[in-house]
Amino acid sequence: RRTDPGLSDSPWLVVGLGNPGPQYAATRHNIGAMAVELFASSLSGALSTNRRCRAEVFEGRLGPLGHGATRVVLARSRGFMNESGGPVACLMDFFKVPAEQLVVLHDELDLPLGALRIKAGGGDNGHNGLRSIRRSLDGGEFHRIRLGIGRPPGRQDPAEFVLRPFTSSERSEVDLLLSDAV
Q1: Prediction pTM value
Q2: With a cut of 70, which residues of the chain have pLDDT below it?
C-alpha cells in the first residue's frame, strides 16, 4: 500500500501503437507495439488477449517486490492504429487508470531514426493513432514516448514509408531504440 496520498493505487497503462497482423509486425509504424512486447518480455511475461477491450495485455510490477512495487499494464490494440482510441479508453476504464498514468509509445517521423523523446500532453501532430486516442479520451493529457523512425527518403509518401519494414542496416539502431524505450 502506498503511503503518499498523492499517488494513485491504479496501475500505469503503457500502450504501444501499431497495426495487427504479420505483414505489419516489423514495420516502422509498429515500433511502439514492438517496444511493449520487449517490455513484457523483460518482465518475463507475454501479452495475452483481453477480448473485452480488443487488446493484448500483460499485467506486472516494476520495482522491488512487495508493497512498494508499481503495478503496470502493458498493452497493444488488436485493431488498426487509426482505431486505437476505443481499446485504450476501454483499458483505462477496465483497470481504473487515470489519464496522467497513461503512457503511449508511438512512431515519430519528425525524429531521426534512433531518437527518443518523452512528452507530456499535447496534440497529435498528424499521427492518426494519437488522434484516435485523444478523441476517445476527450483530450491529450497523457504521456507519450516518441520513437524516432526518420523521414521518408526523397518524395516518398510518408503513409507508404511508415508501413515499410526497417532495412537490415537499420536493425541495430532499431534494437538500441527499443532497448532505450523499455
Answers
A1: 0.92
A2: 1-8, 65-67
Whether residue 112 contacts residue 154, with contact meaning beta carbons closer than 8 Å, is answered with no
| Residue 87 backbone phi and psi in degrees, to 5 | -60, -40
pLDDT at 8: 59
Q: What is the pLDDT of residue 63?
A: 81
Cβ-based neighbour number of residue 179 at 10 Å: 11
10 Å Cβ neighbour count for 76? Answer: 29
Alpha-carbon span 161 to 165, nearest angstrom: 9
Active site (annotated) includes residue 29: yes
Q: What is the pLDDT of residue 126?
A: 82
Residue whose grid cell is 516518441: 146
The 3 state secondary structure assigned to the chain is CCCCCCCCCCCEEEEECCCCCCCCCCEHHHHHHHHHHHHHHHCCCCCEEEHHHCEEEEEEEECCCCCCCEEEEEEEECCCHHHCHHHHHHHHHHHCCCHHHEEEEEEECCCCCCCEEEEECCCCCCCHHHHHHHHHHCCCCCEEEEEECCCCCCCCCHHHHHCCECCCCCHHHHHHHHHHHC
- pLDDT at residue number 6: 46
Q: Yes or no: say if 45 and 58 are a contact pair by the CB < 8 Å rule.
A: yes
Cα torsion for 119, 122, 128, 131, to the nearest 10°? 130
